[in-house]
UniProtKB/TrEMBL annotation:
Pfam families: dCMP_cyt_deam_1 (PF00383). Belongs to the cytidine and deoxycytidylate deaminase family. The lineage of its organism: Eukaryota, Amoebozoa, Evosea, Variosea, Cavosteliida. Keywords: Hydrolase, Metal-binding, Zinc. Its cofactor is Zn(2+). Zn(2+) binds at residues 99, 133, 136. This is Cytidine deaminase. The active site is at residue 101.
Length: 185
């Protein structure tokens, strides 16, 4: 069997998390590289972390998931210390569904918050920690570096951050970057 090595530069991703994201039929050898030095100092108190986790699970109970039966909850901790929750809301026109992470972020922004310390995401998955979809990873990254707690129902979690979850994300800085000049037609 061929073994592929993945180098996860600029990340604190754990081997357990990486392996939980891989297809069962493919085995990867994972070599973790030096941790970046630019990680945010967003350590939470034990009380803040417990509340973040509790509210994430509580939000999950309000999910509207009649089609997939896949309930997800999220809770954000703002820089000012407020907790804001969200759950996934499905729609029969699947493309109109919204994930828990984006629900929480949209609620937070609509309430005037744009700076966050952490987000916890929970689901009913027993064998794997929940992992945000690609759209949510990009959406979370819009708001800068924060800690991300990926939960299992038994309250175990993987702690990661924005850089590890989406290391080469598209940012607003790229919109302001130098571009080629297009000829007018």
């Amino acid at each position: 069997m061929e073994v592929t090595t993945i180098v996860l530069a600029h990340s604190r991703i754990t081997a357990q998390f990486a392996q939980s994201c891989l297809c069962e039929s493919i085995r990867f050898a994972i070599r973790l590289v030096k941790q970046p030095t630019y990680m945010a100092n967003t350590s939470l108190t034990p009380e803040q972390l417990e509340k973040l986790i509790d509210l994430s699970f509580s939000a999950k109970t309000r999910a509207h998931a009649p089609y997939s039966k896949f309930r997800v909850g999220a809770c954000l901790l703002t820089q000012s210390g407020e907790f804001i929750t969200g759950c996934n809301v499905e729609n029969s026109s699947y493309g109109l569904s919204i994930c828990a992470e984006r629900t929480a972020l949209v609620k937070a922004v609509s309430e005037g918050h744009t700076n966050f310390r952490a987000i916890a995401v929970s689901s009913d998955l027993v064998d794997n920690h929940i992992s945000p979809c690609g759209a949510c990873r990009q959406f979370i990254s819009e708001f800068g570096l924060m800690d991300i707690y990926l939960m299992k129902p038994d309250r175990t979690y993987i702690k990661t951050d924005t850089d590890a979850l989406l290391p080469f994300r598209f940012t607003g800085e790229q919109l302001d970057g130098k571009k080629i000049q297009l000829e007018e037609q």
